[in-house]
């Protein structure tokens, strides 16, 4: 049997570059939508309807930093305290009259939540012991109709919720990063996006008065 032509047996450099480019384009479009911030108009609309769920990771841990502590050694750093205040003020700018706020009882999450909000924050053990728990069920139990839900928690709880929603786990969320979900009532909540601490200013879209 005659041998195949040389070009058929060995792809050219141009073909290899083309295949690589197509692979990168395809990879880009299959990345989880949750890696991008949600649409500002959609966020504003759902927040007004009381259909937003926010998971906020606590601020920078003092026991894993060389920065001065805000207080107790198992809490957050002093420099993270101001970031927490700004983040809380930004969220409060959308209005908190129809919002329930919970946090893990650990010092770092309690400090973060108390610095973020002047409103009452209720401590909940399930926002810490979530590694082997059903985060989705707890969220459904605590999400009241027409009320937003803010949960100040830990990175493991992000992972557990994604598992409950049959979603691939992403990278470990940064300190203060927020996972945004839109409540679909009877169906599982929809992951609308992720917001870094520096992305909130771009998201804000004619917030309601608090």
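^ Assign residues to that structure.
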């Amino acid at each position: 049997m005659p041998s195949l032509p040389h070009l058929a047996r060995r792809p050219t450099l141009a073909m290899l570059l083309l295949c690589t480019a197509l692979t990168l384009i395809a990879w880009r479009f299959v990345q989880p939508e949750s890696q991008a911030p949600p649409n500002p108009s959609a966020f504003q609309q759902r927040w007004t309807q009381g259909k937003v769920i926010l998971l906020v990771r606590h601020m920078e841990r003092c026991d894993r930093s060389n920065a001065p502590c805000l207080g107790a050694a198992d809490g957050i750093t002093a420099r993270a305290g101001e970031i927490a205040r700004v983040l809380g003020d930004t969220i409060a700018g959308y209005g908190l009259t129809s919002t329930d706020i919970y946090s893990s009882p650990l010092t770092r999450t309690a400090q973060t939540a108390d610095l973020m909000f002047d409103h009452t924050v209720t401590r909940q053990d399930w926002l810490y012991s979530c590694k082997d728990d059903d985060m989705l069920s707890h969220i459904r139990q605590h999400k009241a109709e027409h009320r937003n839900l803010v949960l100040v928690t830990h990175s493991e709880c992000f992972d557990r919720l994604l598992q409950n929603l049959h979603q691939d786990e992403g990278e470990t969320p940064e300190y203060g990063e927020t996972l945004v979900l839109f409540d679909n009532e009877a169906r599982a909540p929809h992951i609308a996006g992720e917001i870094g601490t520096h992305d909130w200013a771009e998201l804000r879209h004619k917030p309601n008065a608090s």
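The first helix runs from residue 6 to 9.
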